[in-house]
Every structure is written in C-alpha cells, then in structure tokens.
Amino acid sequence: MTSQNPPVADRCYRSPTALAAGVALLAIALWLGSDALIRGSGRQQITVGAGLLCFVPLVVAFTLRPAVFAGRERLRVRNPFRTISISWQSVDSLRSGYTSEVVADGTTYQLWSVPVSLRARKAAIRHNARVDAGHKPSRGLFGVGLSESVTGEGEGGGRKQATSDSVIHELRDLAAKHGEDGPAPAPARPVTVRWAYEVLAPLLVGAVGLAYVLAT
User: Fold this and answer.
1) 44: which residues sit within 8 A by CB, 6+ positions away?
2) C-alpha dist (Å) from residue 3 to 27, 63, 86, 163, 168
3) Does the pLDDT value for residue 171 go beyond 80?
4) Do 19 and 169 touch, CB atoms closer than 8 A?
5) Per-residue pLDDT for 68 more than 90?
6) Range list of β-strands (E), the chain
7) What is the pLDDT of residue 155?
8) CA distances from 98 to 77, 118, 156, 164 (A)
9) What is the pLDDT, as a whole number, of residue 145?
10) Using alpha carbons only, what angle is made at residue 170 by residues 65 and 70, rounded to the nearest 5 degrees?
C-alpha cells in the first residue's frame, strides 16, 4: 500500500500489487487483441473487439480505478463501479477485519484499494511478540524480513503493523480530528454516491455486442 501526503492535496491510498497486475493484464490483452484485430477475419474482429470492450473496463475497474482519498473535509472512496464521498462528520466507524470498511450514516462501504492481508497481520503480530519479549526480530526465510504489506517504526527492531491496519489507523485519526467533536471539524455534508458510467458504459456495450455475436 502506498500513501502520498502532500501539504494541500488529499492523501491517496492505492494497492501497488493491483496496479502492477492491472498494467500487466492490459498489456497482454492489448497485445493479443490488436494482433487479432489486424490479422483476423470480419467476424473474428467483431468478437475480439467486443471482448476487449468487456475485458478492459473490468480490469481497469478492479485494478487501476480503486483508490481512497482522504482530505481535510471528506473521505472519497473510489471503488470499481462507484465513488462515495463522505464528510468526516458522517463517518460512524472505520474497521479492518477480513476487509477494510467505512461505516457512514449507518451504511457500510468497502475500501477496495486497502486489501487486508491476514498473512501480513500475523507476521506483524509475531514480530511484535518477539520485540516485546526482548528477542531479536526474525529475519524470515533466507534472511528476508517482513513483507512490504507490513509497516512500522525503525528498520527492523521497531513494532510493526499490517499496512491495511496502518491505513485504517491513519483514517481514524483524521476522522477524530475532523469529525464533529474534533479540534478541526469539517463541514457536515450528506454522503453522495456516483456510479462510474465511464466504466459501465463500454462494459455494457461490449457485453451486448459479445452476447449478440455468440448468439448468432
């Protein structure tokens, strides 16, 4: 998980693993698809074109699009097919169990760009147990330490935390600071949800086209 914290702009939380997977899938799809579009026959070209119209938006939706933006006034959650804007005063809770979620005005929204790694969480727990017991932290298999999905203080001896838990902790701090009872409360606004028509429209066109080609 990566976070950016410029002086004015929102903090941005995204999954590097999802971004890398999305870029790789798109590169493969466009490479194979362009070859079929250039060398294929008429019906094959239509089928491949419709398939790309389905596949590309899905890849973008689930890998490149998800992000969480946290600013002074609001939390903006960009999920595969929706963008949810939440004033800090509307945030009821933020939690990280098997998934990362925000509860706002009684409704739960999943944070797709903050995936939970149970493996990383267990690794952090084991690391912290060794540190608390006064033992040297384990270097892991072949001398490799904790994974990149674990963050913490210091190079190796400090306490660690799964990155998803660290992100939720940062968001809770912002909610406490800018919530109704915080020292710098943000303006109260209703929760708004916007559908990602820029993703849904080509996906629908591609699905209809692919269904027609396969049915005829």
Assistant:
1) 36
2) 25, 16, 19, 10, 12
3) yes
4) no
5) yes
6) 2-4, 11-14, 67-70, 74-78, 82-87, 91-96, 100-104, 107-110, 150-152, 160-162, 192-195
7) 46
8) 18, 8, 26, 10
9) 47
10) 40
Lowest-confidence segment of 23-32, 33-42, 96-105, 175-184 by average pLDDT: 33-42
Altogether, the residues listed in the chain come to a count of 216
Q: Which residues pair with 94 in a beta bridge?
A: 102
Across 29-64, b (16+ Cβ under 10 Å) vs e yields: beeebeebeeeeeeeeebbbbbbbbbbbbebbbbbb
What is the pLDDT averaged over residues 134-152?
Answer: 55
Written as six digits, the tokens of 84 are 């949810």
Return the SS3 of 40.
coil
Report residue 1's pLDDT band, with 50, 70 and 90 as the boundaries.
Answer: low
